[in-house]
Amino acid sequence: MRWLRFCWTLLRATVHAVQGFWTIKTVFPKLEQADREARVQVWAGAMLRIVGIELVVKGKPPAGGPVLLVANHISWLDILVMHASRHCRFVSKADVRGWPFVRTLSDGAGSLYIERESRRDAHRVVTQMAERLQAGDILAVFPEGTTGDGITLKHFHANLIQAAIEASVPVQPLALKFIDAASGAVSFAPSYVDDETLAGSIWRTLTAPPIKAVVVFGEPQPPQGQTRRAWAQSLREDIESLRQQA
Description:
- This protein is an alpha/beta fold.
- The protein has a single domain, classed as Glycerol-3-phosphate (1)-acyltransferase (3-Layer(aba) Sandwich).
- Helix content is about 45%, strand content about 15%.
- The chain has eight helices and seven strands.
- Strands 1-7-6-2-5-3-4 form a seven-stranded mixed beta sheet, sandwiched between helices.
- The longest helix is centred in the first third of the chain and has 25 residues, at about 1-25.
- The two termini are about 30 Å apart.
- About 35% of the residues are buried.
């Protein structure tokens, strides 16, 4: 029965992804940016429901930009969860551009790309982020740089926080958490960390008991003359506190 459930859910998710791909290719060129963003948010919410994840949003998502969202990182599902709670433009690894199907979905959602190993590229992306923030966008980053275990936060890298300082815009922390819908305990089914494989994470997610994805939005914080490193550490502490509210 688990295999049957897995195959059926995976099929439905694949069909939904293909429909999203087709919409981006054929419909998005005719839409205004706000309409594209609304479609991405609806699509992400539908995908979560297909894979059996209930979205719970606490706090106040930003009504509009400019603002930089900063979140902890747990799973490949995080981007879907955040898009479903409030559309935003992500800063993603440049590797995504090498996956044609995924890149189309990512481009359709408005992602920016960074070569994480290159300091020069980090500077370019910070400049681009600052420009987009000044234009009124909502951007989102995972300052841990990689997925964690869902229990302990990793070190927060401060480089991309510099964009909010240069643009003089607020940063809004948010915490992500996956919990078992029945017990309220942390669910490790969507985990994708260390030696875990994407295939294994997808299998666990699609065959697990019902899961809730909890998003807790904190209060936006103006720069107030902070250095990027001090601000990154403060945001890490804020997100740790928000995780306790999930």
